[in-house]
Amino acid sequence: xxxxxxxxxxxxxxxxxxxxxxxxxxxxxxxxxxxxxxxxxxxxxxxxxxxxxxxxxxxxxxxxxxxxxxxxxxxxxxxxxxxxxxxxxxxxxxxxxxxxxxxxxxxx
Length: 108
Description:
- There is one protein chain.
- The chain has four helices and five strands.
- It has a five-stranded mixed sheet with strand order 1-3-2-4-5, sandwiched between helices.
- A hairpin with a 2-residue loop joins strand 4 and strand 5.
- Helices cover 41% and strands 25% of the residues.
- By secondary structure, it is of the alpha/beta class.
């Protein structure tokens, strides 16, 4: 299960991570986020050696959501070396998410 991070742990878990990080910004009231959760779980199992997956509840981390211009949920950001490398806004098909993961990991 993806680790939950907040504004306090974001620096350490995401920006300072030596491993590329997929960050899902979500909202508890977002039905699409709940539907998307099993897909992220699959990606976490498949790519556990290559990426770290974390979740950020945007309702409790408004500063992070604003900093990264998150206005819809879910929003997926891929970080490498502390910088955003790829972005997906809204629900995307599993195959598209996997293709972006492969592309972002290869491009690191």
